[in-house]
Amino acid sequence: MKEPDFSISVLGEPTIQMSVISEKQDVWNTSYVGDDQYVLYDIAVTNGKSEAGIDRSSLIEKAGPRGKVYFEPAKVHAGVVTCGGLCPGLNDVIRAIVMTLWYRYNAKQISGFRYGYRGFLSKFNLPVMELTPDVVTKIHRLGGTILGTSRGYGDCIEEKVDTLERLNINMLFAIGGDGTQKGALDISDEAEKRGLKIAVIGIPKTIDNDLNFVQKSFGFQTAVSRAVDAVDSAHVEAHDAINGIGIVKVMGRESGFIAAHTAMAINDVNYVLIPEVRFDLDGENGLLANLERRLEQRNHAVILVAEGAGQEYMEDSRTSDASGNIQFNDIGVYLKERIREYFKKKEIEINMKHIDPSYMIRSAPANPNDSTYCARLGAHAVHADMAGKTGMIISLIHSQFVHVPIRLAISSRKRIDPHKELWRDVTEATGQPLLLQERRKKPC
Amino acid sequence: MKEPDFSISVLGEPTIQMSVISEKQDVWNTSYVGDDQYVLYDIAVTNGKSEAGIDRSSLIEKAGPRGKVYFEPAKVHAGVVTCGGLCPGLNDVIRAIVMTLWYRYNAKQISGFRYGYRGFLSKFNLPVMELTPDVVTKIHRLGGTILGTSRGYGDCIEEKVDTLERLNINMLFAIGGDGTQKGALDISDEAEKRGLKIAVIGIPKTIDNDLNFVQKSFGFQTAVSRAVDAVDSAHVEAHDAINGIGIVKVMGRESGFIAAHTAMAINDVNYVLIPEVRFDLDGENGLLANLERRLEQRNHAVILVAEGAGQEYMEDSRTSDASGNIQFNDIGVYLKERIREYFKKKEIEINMKHIDPSYMIRSAPANPNDSTYCARLGAHAVHADMAGKTGMIISLIHSQFVHVPIRLAISSRKRIDPHKELWRDVTEATGQPLLLQERRKKPC
Amino acid sequence: MKEPDFSISVLGEPTIQMSVISEKQDVWNTSYVGDDQYVLYDIAVTNGKSEAGIDRSSLIEKAGPRGKVYFEPAKVHAGVVTCGGLCPGLNDVIRAIVMTLWYRYNAKQISGFRYGYRGFLSKFNLPVMELTPDVVTKIHRLGGTILGTSRGYGDCIEEKVDTLERLNINMLFAIGGDGTQKGALDISDEAEKRGLKIAVIGIPKTIDNDLNFVQKSFGFQTAVSRAVDAVDSAHVEAHDAINGIGIVKVMGRESGFIAAHTAMAINDVNYVLIPEVRFDLDGENGLLANLERRLEQRNHAVILVAEGAGQEYMEDSRTSDASGNIQFNDIGVYLKERIREYFKKKEIEINMKHIDPSYMIRSAPANPNDSTYCARLGAHAVHADMAGKTGMIISLIHSQFVHVPIRLAISSRKRIDPHKELWRDVTEATGQPLLLQERRKKPC
Amino acid sequence: MKEPDFSISVLGEPTIQMSVISEKQDVWNTSYVGDDQYVLYDIAVTNGKSEAGIDRSSLIEKAGPRGKVYFEPAKVHAGVVTCGGLCPGLNDVIRAIVMTLWYRYNAKQISGFRYGYRGFLSKFNLPVMELTPDVVTKIHRLGGTILGTSRGYGDCIEEKVDTLERLNINMLFAIGGDGTQKGALDISDEAEKRGLKIAVIGIPKTIDNDLNFVQKSFGFQTAVSRAVDAVDSAHVEAHDAINGIGIVKVMGRESGFIAAHTAMAINDVNYVLIPEVRFDLDGENGLLANLERRLEQRNHAVILVAEGAGQEYMEDSRTSDASGNIQFNDIGVYLKERIREYFKKKEIEINMKHIDPSYMIRSAPANPNDSTYCARLGAHAVHADMAGKTGMIISLIHSQFVHVPIRLAISSRKRIDPHKELWRDVTEATGQPLLLQERRKKPC
Question: What residue stretches are annotated with the Phosphofructokinase domain (chains A, B, C, D) (predicted)?
Fold first, then answer.
């Protein structure tokens, strides 16, 4: 594995001494963070050997307010954009950015781009929204994002930077997933190329919790809480029927974190299927035969499936089905069909209920724990931008707020390792077997 | 600072090869944790210098299932006890211990002591409760602890060990705060002195989140969520009245973590008072005059106070009040009285509402995030006990489950450092001033 | 309209003086209900004329404990059965029946049939479950029914009565919809024919709230609360996207009560579609064109549709589609397809989200208001059965608990009258237009 | 009992034909309510005799939109005021009034008085708040009232009417309890005396649910839900301690409806104490001895007490306590002290927890069922005011929205009759005995 590069980009030397803000100075003076403060990234030690040295390549810069800042508050014009799918906590982050700029730094010109990166593009003709404390004061009670959002438009970098120039925006907060952060990095690079002093900070958003260098993504806990409600319903439906089967499909395109945490929280799940772990449907050890045995013994079963699980089955299906039925892209629907067929052929009555709570999860307001986290993420993003940092995200690693270069953060995805503790604890909680026909095969 | 000693005690050499459990072997074989796996404790690096070396004193042993265990499952008789005040998640932990012993290790003799350490003492005549999967299957939906709890009785070590001997218990799970863990350690020591092979593992419980070497205590997130509800009510009451003042008192005897996190989650708190930060009531910069100025400008205010804050005021009161009025021990009530007097003297009408949600916080069922956490804490406690570890707690540090010696864990308390980031972020969120008459005084 | 017949059937003369139960007698003596107590059913008066006289045909018998009962408590063997789809509150009703029999009447032999009417039939071999206070004490916290449920098997009356005879059951509580109640009536009739003294009381269950002579069905309020959550999500999703459209499908086969009440509770619904009110999709005044106009003006829209709405469209579809694609039976899916086509043809981008919360609604535990209601329904059912009443349901009319003959209760369905106040208030809340091409057509 | 007088006051003959509002006419034309539509008030029939005739004195006028209205929409200036303590649903009612005036009647001049009746009085100098759809669109998510509230100032009728004259307000919506409604009636009378055409409609607010002629007051269901949470906590605390006692005090000055409904919802209450039912503390049958017996048998107990219960004890206490300690006005605190003393004297250890959730109940946002109800109350109030009705409240009787003269509504309070079904069902649910020393005494 190539060593990660934690080097941080900055616009220039921060020179503006943070003015002493009246009554509060004593507290704040003492809690500035220096640019020489880091945390060690790799903390695992096996057999006395650690991969952690104290050279630059293993140190992550601590986030937090600096004693000297790069931007003069009165000259700041900040832009905020939210991109991609909804996620609990978006409004909390927007709110924290506005409040921190306004009250902490006295920077009062803040514009919100509408509907993701489209808001930068003239063809959509979407004027920016002025953001003030009055506008944002109660928005953390609402799900979604007051700015609106959309997917795509990560390109058109030049027009975007044109727009920033036209609006005299010198500080950009990009809230979104890795596509969004890639776009933010491109903006930062283009601005640098043009000699513009625009600081670009990302706040990483991934309801799937699948970003590397992000210990736990905002909204993830709220998502798990809502997924638990859906599993609870599926369990009640399955339990109270003859041969009841509940299927719950949750988010997780490339990683099964929501499914894994949900299963451990509620204890009513019997099978968790995630993208990282292969499973057979057919054969004596496959899901279908296993399900049949469970129904015989316990009369009901709950299956929790991440949307990215079992994709190989649906490719096969697509091949065999000339009409290209698009519903087969949905693993929940696919499983339902396969299970129905299996038991129909065996003439065994089943009562199957399929729940897809995805939109109800995405659109939830953040729970209090996520709210606290989002409030701090937003504040740290402002501290970073004010200090002239650029091209990086705010992250939490080993419970410390840190700066991670976007280039590094988006270089690979976080996935569940089936050989490590999280998946072990999940399978112990569900008691599920390896759903593989040949035992010697690797589980993934 | 003396270096912490992370050395772990064990009963003896684990020799029993974990039997291959049918279908699941492939997964589990690969995820055993070795006794040579550690995590670095101190990860802060400043100016290129770290306190972290890779010598024994800075390494914490990783928790998790071992490939060889010390106890033969069929001979295990486990005891479980819950002590001290209620805390969300107690039932989740009990459930996880029972389920993991039963299904993972096939150890099926489990006894629950009733009402804390009293359950060990013959004079209370409290027979143990047999714990099986059927008994615990749904208890994580309920607040409190099915075993009951009580305070005190940390002593009488000899009788306790007599009881364990009499019941042939060779494995004890002690769920409680630092007093409880101290008692557990004494039991472990006494057992060793007698040459008994009793493995004692603690699961640290502190709703205040004030244990060192515990990143976040179980139930803490649920507690914050419930505290948020109370602050929300206080804010509505204050906001909708003329000169409305809402006071919410939350737990936190020696540290203000609940108050701090609650304030950041809800954004409606104007003053957070915690044990770690001194505040003046009187004088131009004191709370009372400050409150008056806020009411003039904003017409309402919300004060969130941890129970241990401002104790020095109540000592004074006690001294001056010969009758020793006990209600003055309650900082919420004390503040209410002082505020009432202040505005009465000034003939300013106020509408004050005091909310004490403590019992509604303590008795809540765990939220899904705490449930997941408790499930894993309980499972790791069983892994530790089965491996013959003793005199230690299960903890989460840098997001890793680890073993921490009880001796080390209870040696000091965790408190909020007013000069560090948590308190900085809180005061920025509330916008509260230093409430100190003389500015040059230290804030604590 | 033929006059309703409110006459009540009884097994015989109640003769057993309710024994004075120790401490409680004074209260209870005074609150027995006499068989001569009634409430007036029709209370509407227009222009000085009422349909209400005080003759037998307009009076409904009051429910409640009688001073003399028909069954000797020690000889009671009660049976309880839950049938049909899940509904919040089933466990509350079961609990109330058991608790009232046990503690109020000292009748302690209670059997629960498993999985609906199947539990009566030998071919399914489902032994009854013994019901005691210990078994039911906490079940009101859980959704679903501890007895399990199934659909159908309303027939086989003779075998069912054979089963009751074999078990010596003389009191039956049937919790279910109108099919279930019809089955209960048939059992009552068959028992009478055989000269058996079996008292059969129904507790009407209909999450759609569509039973006549039932002011508000149990579980309905909980259902509306959960539907509100789904609409809230749909609104957030629609509002935060470009041309966002949220579709929520809720229960309501023949009547739109859940949709109607949900729309008034949350105020974010723009179109409510119910079975009682015809709507056009096409044409200038149809839903599609209307939706287009709304998106132009407001950029988002929320549609709340009851499952029974617009069935005529799907019949047409079925006719034209030779392969009989079953998914067209789902009005939510059908609308989604039609809307997608419409805007695709117009080359207008839309972002549509379809939420079907039905299973999450059905399986919810009762909220406190429904719990109170279910507790009282169950208790009144026991009072009726003990008094020897048979062939009737417990209902709430004009906020009074009453006895309604099953024959009468199932004779017709309750539906929303589009010319009356409920629908008027709904359309005023949503501001929705008549979605009919020709204006002179009646709306239904 | 004197017959109630249901006669309605009106400002004059409604003459303005409701204009046909574009698309919606068909629906609305058909659902106007005529002034000749009534509902029968007294529906009880015993032994063939009813108190209900169809003469004027037993008929209540139906509420709803009239085909002709009194006010020309363009000339309407409406005022809204909220008075007294907080109650869930206030914002919902304000919202419904504004939305109905604006969209249904096209009446767009709406002013909100601030902080109750104080907003009418020049000495408080509180300018009115302009109310528009934008201002109120999301307020139903918030507890409390955006207008603020205060107690008192029911007098100063002349200045209030001066204020209305000065502002040219011709339509007043008064949301509050019986004091508020009395004030509203006085305003209506004074306006009539001056020959002003001001229509005054009340929306009755009483969290205690103690207004006569109001079937169920808005916010009551939400209040019960929140009270259930508190009892749940008290039960957990009591159950998990040795001799645990939980005391929950809820609202209910003169009637115990919240306590009664809460007890039936949650089933964990052992003693409900309400103002309507006398109870002894001392003596063999008193609460204290009874509690002791229960602790012996069951080890825990939960007491739910309405604030107005047992006031006679505290008068006695006040008499005997020269220092006039005001805390004895709180029955929760008083009970706690008496119970503590009792068991201390007997040297029995108890663990007592006292929870007062009142402010958390009052300030809650309305639950969906209350939201629907409030939405309809507000709309009906507007219909009444537009039709020129005055001096009356909107109420729900026998599930119908009706007009009740304020004079009649405030003439007496609704209380729980201990001899009727509600209290009977409560005592059966709790199993509580008569807590009276002498058995022949009446329970109230």
Answer: 78-383
Assess whether pLDDT exceeds 60 at residue C56.
no
Pick among 3.40.50.2000, 3.40.50.300, 1.10.1740.10, 3.40.50.450: CATH of C9-218+366-409: 3.40.50.450
Nearest chain B CA: its distance from A147 CA (Å): 20
**Cβ–Cβ contact D420 with C under 8 A:** yes
pLDDT at position B420: 87
Mutation test of the interface with chain B: which of D235, D240, D328, D340, choosing the one with the most B Cβ atoms within 10 A? Answer: D240
Least confident of B139-143, C133-137, D29-33: D29-33
Establish how many alpha carbons lie within 13 A of residue D389's alpha carbon, considering only the half-sphere containing its beta carbon.
Answer: 28
Chain B residue numbers touching A103 (CB-CB < 8 A): 428, 431
pLDDT in tens, B388-428: 999 999 999 999 999 999 999 988 889 999 988 899 899 98
Which amino acid is it at D253? R
Task: Please check the confidence at residue C328 and state whether its pLDDT lies above 80.
Answer: no
Of A234-248, A401-415, B27-41, C159-173, minimum mean pLDDT range:
B27-41
CA–CA gap between residue C189 and residue C193 (Å, rounded): 6
pLDDT for B55 equals: 55
At D164-187, the pLDDT tens digits run: 999 999 999 999 999 999 999 999
Closest alpha carbon within chain A to B440:
A26
Q: Is the pTM of this model over 0.80?
A: yes
Contact B23/A264, CB-based, under 8 Å? Answer: no
Alpha-carbon span B114 to B126, nearest angstrom = 6
Rounded to the nearest 10 degrees, how much is the dihedral formed by the CA atoms of D22, D23, D29, D33? -90
| Cβ pair B359:D118 closer than 8 A | no
Whether CATH 3.90.79.10 fits D9-214+366-409:
no
Q: Among candidates C436, C422, C406, C356, which has minimal Cα distance to C211?
A: C406
For residue C83, the tally of other CB atoms under 10 A from its CB is 29
Q: What residues form DSSP beta bridges with A81?
A: A174
What average pLDDT does range D93-122 have in this prediction? 96
Say yes or no for a CB contact (<8 Å) between D423 and C31.
Answer: yes
Chain D interface disruption, residue of B81, B240, B326, B352, most D CBs within 10 A: B240
How do D16-17 and D68-69 pair as beta strands?
Answer: antiparallel
Write the residue in A52, A64, A140 that is nearest to B267 by C-beta: A140
| D123 C-beta neighbours (distance < 10 Å), count | 8
- Quick one: fold of B220-363+419-430? Rossmann fold (3.40.50)
Q: Phi-psi bin for A226: left (phi > 0), alpha (psi -120 to 50), beta?
A: alpha
Beta-bridge partners for B273 = B305
Q: Is B123 on the interface with A (CB under 8 A)?
A: no
Report which residue type is found at C163. Answer: T
**Annotation: CATH topology of B9-216+366-409:** Rossmann fold (3.40.50)
Positions of A annotated as catalytic residues are 208
**Per the annotation, does A360 bind a ligand?**
yes
Residue type, A153: Y
Topology match between the domains D9-214+366-409 and D220-363+419-430: yes
Residues 77-116 of A with CB under 8 A from B: 95, 99-100, 103-104
B27 dihedral zone (left: phi>0; alpha: psi -120 to 50; beta) = alpha
Residues B25, A414: contact at Cβ < 8 Å?
no
In C346-389, alpha helices (H): 358-362, 368-386
pLDDT, position A355: 97
Complex prediction ipTM? 0.91
Find the catalytic residue in C92, C186, C189, C208: C208
| B85 exposure class (CB count in 10 Å sphere: 0-12, 13-18, 19+) | buried
Taking the domains of chain B in order of start, what are their residue ranges? Answer: 9-216+366-409, 220-363+419-430
